[in-house]
Structures are given as C-alpha cells and as structure tokens.
Amino acid sequence: QVRLVESGGGLVQPGGSLRLSCAASGNVIKINSAAWYRQAPGNQRELVARLDRSGRTRYGDFAEGRFTMSTDKAQNRMYLQMNALKPEDTATYYCNADMLIEQPIRFDQEFWGKGTLVTVSS
Known about the structure:
By secondary structure, the chain is mainly beta. Strands 2, 4, 5, 6, 9, 10 and 11 form a seven-stranded mixed sheet that branches. Strand 7 and strand 8 form a beta hairpin.
C-alpha cells in the first residue's frame, strides 16, 4: 500500500527552525511532483511550497525566503526546512505528491499524508 508519512513537527519558539520530512512508502517508482500544504484551525488549506515536474519550486508568499523545499528522489523523500518561524506558522503541515506507482500496472496517482502539527509559541 502506498503511503505518505510526515514527521518532524513539534513545538518551537518564535524565531526557531524545524525540518519536516515526508517519506513515501510502498511500490513507488518515482515522484513526479510534490508539495507541502498547511492548515491552521479555522482556515483553509494553503500551499506552502510546490515542486513541479520541470523541477521548479514555488512558494507561498509567507514562505518565500524562510522556507525551503527539497526532495531526495532516490529515497522518495521530501523535506521542508522552516526558519525564522512565527506564531502564525502554527498549523498542521501536509505533504502531497503525484507519484508513479506500480500495483501491479504502473500509473500516476496523487497522495496526501495525514499531517504533522507545528506549533510556534513561547
């Protein structure tokens, strides 16, 4: 069964840093595109960062200059380095990926992780 599992969330003080990870497991052939989203209580889910099929990464305005998305395609992992965190960054962070999977035929499918909670507070 193909899954995405996030880790690395937790409590951090304002100005601190966290690195989120997302691991794809199961019969994953490759990650076509990937993204991180977040959702704070009472708010809609919003894009944090997206890596498209051409290899370009774009960020939400709030993330530009503070967050960096990276991938390790050999390990089918995605990362989100978050620096200079603010209380308004408090949210559940989700990874999302369009992946080529094999079950047993090969096809592309989109997956979501269940999220990891990031709390920025003193």
